[in-house]
Amino acid sequence: MAGRKRSVRVKIFAILLLPVVALTVIWGFAATISVQAGMEYIRIGTVYEHVVSPARVVLTELQNERLRSLSYLGTTSTFHADLDTQQETTDAAAAALATHATEAESSTPPAMWERVQELLRQLSRLDTVREQVENRDISRLDALEEYSSIAEVGFQVYDRLMISPDIDLVAQTKAIILVGRGREIVSQQSALLAGTLGAGKMTEDERAAFAEMVGQRRLLYQLGTSQLDEELRQPYDALNASPIYADYLTLEKGVSEVVRPGKVLPIEAARWQATVEAVSITLDKLGGEIARKITERAAPLAESVLWRVALLGVLGLVAVVVTVFFSFRFARKLATELAALRHAALDLADRRLPDVVRRLRNGEEVDVAAETPPLAVHRDTTEVDDVSEAFASVQRTAVEAAVGQARLRKGVSMVFLNLARRSQSLLHRQLDLLDTLERQVGDPAVLEQLFGVDHLTTRMRRHAEGLIIMSGAAPGRGWRDPVSLYDVTRAAVEEVEDYLRVLIAVPPETALAGPAVTDVIHLVAELVENACIFSPPNTQVFVRGELVARGFVLEVEDRGLGIGAEELAHLNERLAEPPEFDLADSDRLGLFVVGRLAQRHGVRVSLRASPYGGTTAIVLLPPDIVVAGEPEEYTVERLIPQQPALTPVPSDGDGLPRRVRQASLAPQLRGENS
User: How many domains is the chain built from?
Assistant: First the structure.
């Protein structure tokens, strides 16, 4: 998540996602293991039905064929119809095993499947052994060995049956396989005795083989039955206590002790075959019953596992759902609190604080306590509550700072206003004195110097009025009647030091409304003065005017070096939307005054590059302050209506306004020297 900004909701989701995924994975893993265990139990039934049971039938029929083959080899008779029938039965059992095994291939363990396929391959070579038996080209012991080797592969199929995850079930399966191997030896004994009875005598090798079988059978039978639990061992205990099993033990002892190799068999040998066959058949039945019981035991275990799987699945799913529900509920709640806190902070920054600042700029009183209420945020989290308190503190500090700044600005404005009023009072008195001296002096040289001082004092008065404008107040001078725009322009030019460089081309037919005269004179004077300052002293500044569709346009053009495009755009922006006065921006006082005056009367002032390389200032006076037609003779009056009206301002012979004693004095200061 590094390098990208994401919401708190996404980050909380990412934090909660890891434990939820971990819980889901653990639940899925446990459920998978339980399902696999249940499927193992179910596989036991499938494998028993399609592999174990058909393989057991194959082994039984193979043992029967072995018995009849050795019986045939023990006689000299050529009749073997019963042997042919048994061979067909064995082949049918082998075909059934192949068919059933294919159906259960997916459920059969790989090792067991390989043994089944090997058993089928071994059964396919029975034709060779059968041919040797039929032609009597093989001895009884060799035939017994051939059939027994094939049967051994069948028992290896059983050895791979350990697919149950239950340890007790596996132990019982191993035990019944050992008993089954013991029963295989009993079947071998039966086949060996059948061949011996047919021949009427037993060879030395056959006697030794029988004795070896006795030892193997007893070992396997004892190991197998001893590992069975009480329920499964009970039928074998009953067999061990039966008379037939006692006769069988007597038979084994008699063959080992009474029979002499190459001699005629004793009389009791006639019952041996029947006794061994009875024990073999009994063991075969018991083996099938025990195998079914073991399979039946696996079914409840499978059901139990499946129930556990279902319970685990339901409980795990409920746990995951509950975890996800509460996690995302917590995340949503926390995100909601943070979002509400964010909205409150943005409301403070974008609406409430600017509104307080605007009201303060308008001179309204602001109650800090009323403007800084507690943030309306529902908070149940300690950290969110702390942040809310911090925002509330920031809010109070910001409003208090804004109020303090407003008071400071108001104080600075009052300082400007007081200084300007005092300077204006002194300057008006100075202008009165100069006017008196101008009337008394007749020397042209001295009179020219007095005119210079008079002009300088007029410029100083304009600067004092600039301070009044910066303080937010209005200058004291004013006109009641419209004044010709030509005279307004001349009056503005006369307040500039290099007024002789300025050429005026303004039609006299259009006049300016009286209340706007003072401010427009000041505005044009500032623009003309800038044009004179930022242009070479040997160039001229042109002031043109004409009536247009949207008012009256005055153009102030200089022949200076001009202003860069970026700076020009910045200045036009400040003229269109005058910013709050900044004490640090003292080199832009004239621009600030022009913007304030233009904003006061709806005048549009813009700057553009002049074709001559300099700058042209365009002043668009709105129609509501422009008066068409011949203007009446104007008078200077006070702005405060309760004071007496001013005396009209006469003009010289050339039409220029002529100063009258105290005519330019601020209204609130005029009267004490009259």
Answer: 3
